[in-house]
Amino acid sequence: MKNHQEIEILAAQWLAREEAGEWSEREQAELDEWLANDSAHKVAWLRLRAAWKLADDVHNLASQGGDAPGLAQP
Amino acid sequence: MRLLRRHWRASDEQLDLRQDIYVKLNEAVAQGGLPEDAAAYLFTVARNHLIDKARRAQVVPIETIAELEALNLMVDDFSPERLAGARSDLRRLQVALDNLPPRCREVVMLRKIEGLSQRDIAQRLGIAEGTVEKQITLGIRSLAQSLFSQGIEVTSAWTRRLRAKEPDA
């Protein structure tokens, strides 16, 4: 098995590439294959995707505390 | 991860273990779903996995195994005070964003707050699209690290349950 870090990098690259635009059916098929190859791929990809999705909540930060989130008080 | 960190020294191996554990969980989910109390289940999976690993690695000091087996006695670590100190999701997100390197953070904010495409971000910042994609890659990994590496949110209900199982603890 590849180590966690290599897998995590690949998973992050897939996610970034997917939202870079020009996502073709062929790329989707490649991603599907990569995910199906190894549970570890899928798990890493799901974990990162969840984190990236959570970052959408940044809107809630912005509406609560002003423009861009800086450091709130400790 | 707190559990892993305390009981497994080499941090790289720790991350490999985390991956193994996630894989186990993933397979458990595929086979019919997690049990009702997912946190307790995860804890048990992690603990058994560590014991298993420790047994196989001859170099692990015997105390490590004993410690792991006595883990139920250590649930006081998850004290109510500590639980109360757990950050809200938003606070955690804020910290995660603050942890990003400046350029990466800029890119992530443009993407998430302004909803700009990677191409638009590249134009706005005067950098290559490939650079934006790389910063996004870095940002995704860094966010996951910050958001998920601080351990499971342990509920007080779970703590009570564990205590009930070990009345003598």
SSE topology sketch:
The complex is a heterodimer of chains A (74) and B (169).
Chain A: H1 4-18, H2 25-37, H3 39-54, H4 58-65
Chain B: H1 2-7, H2 11-30, H3 38-56, H4 62-69, H5 80-84, H6 89-98, H7 102-112, H8 118-125, H9 129-148, H10 156-165
Principal-axis shape of chain B equals: elongated
Distance between the termini of chain A: 41 Å
* Backbone CA Rg of chain B: 20 Å
Which residues of chain A sit in consecutive blocks of at least 5 with pLDDT less than 50? 65-74
Sheet-strand content of chain B, in percent, reads under 5%
Mean pLDDT of chain B equals 71
Characterise the protein shown here:
The complex is a heterodimer of chains A (74) and B (169). With 74 residues, chain A is mainly α. The longest helix of chain A has 16 residues. Chain A starts with a helix and ends in a 9-residue tail after the last helix. The relative contact order of chain A is 0.13. The C terminus of chain A is likely disordered. By secondary structure, chain B is an all-alpha fold. Chain B is 69% helix and 0% strand. Classes of the chains: A mainly alpha (74), B mainly alpha (169). At the A-B interface, helix 1, helix 3 and helix 4 of A face helix 2, helix 6, helix 7 and helix 9 of B.
Summarize the structure.
With 74 residues, chain A is mostly helical. Chain A contains four helices and no strands. Chains A and B meet through α1, α3 and α4 of A and α2, α6, α7 and α9 of B.
Index terms:
heterodimer; A: 74 residues; mainly alpha; 4 helices; disordered C terminus; B: 169 residues; 10 helices; 0% strand; elongated
